[in-house]
Amino acid sequence: MGLFDFATDLGKKLFGKDDDPAEKIKQQIESDNPGIQDLDVSYENGKVILSGNAETAEALEKGVLIAGNVVGVSEVSADGVTAPEQQSKVEYYTIVSGDTLSAIAKRFLGNASAYPKIFEANREVIKDPNLIYPGQKIRIPMD
User: How far apart, in Å, are the Cα atoms of 16 and each of 8, 40, 63, 72, 124?
Assistant: First the structure.
């Protein structure tokens, strides 16, 4: 899947200076259950490396976004995760100031009222469709 860049100072605050970042990120991914078995997470200087076996390509994508949308994470590599090939087209988008899910849906899907499709595709990183923030990276299902 490759390497993804994220905004280091934005996202969910999961760990403090006395916490093990890799363990906290692993717990977050597993609690949101994106479908990665035998998950292993390492963290060094803002870079997260994931390994394991994803049940679907979507589960892998969601795992990467969960790990990347954390304060202190600048990169996520998922080269160590095996997953089936992606069957549907997905684009990634980084939210900017002033964005709403409706505006993003209108731009990418052609219909503002299609925002629930984006929300559902990102439930692991967006808990409330009215609470998104600049710098957050999300998936846009294109089919």
Answer: 14, 20, 21, 10, 21
Domains, the chain, in order of start with CATH, read 3-82 (no CATH), 90-141 (3.10.350.10)
pTM: 0.90
Two structure tokens written together for 57: 């390509």
Spatial CA neighbour of 44 closest among 64, 22, 29:
22
Token pair, residue 93, equals 């988008």
3-class DSSP state of 27: helix
pLDDT digits (tens, 9 = 90+) for 24-56: 999 999 998 779 999 999 999 999 999 999 999
Q: What are phi and psi of 125, to 5 degrees?
A: -115, -15
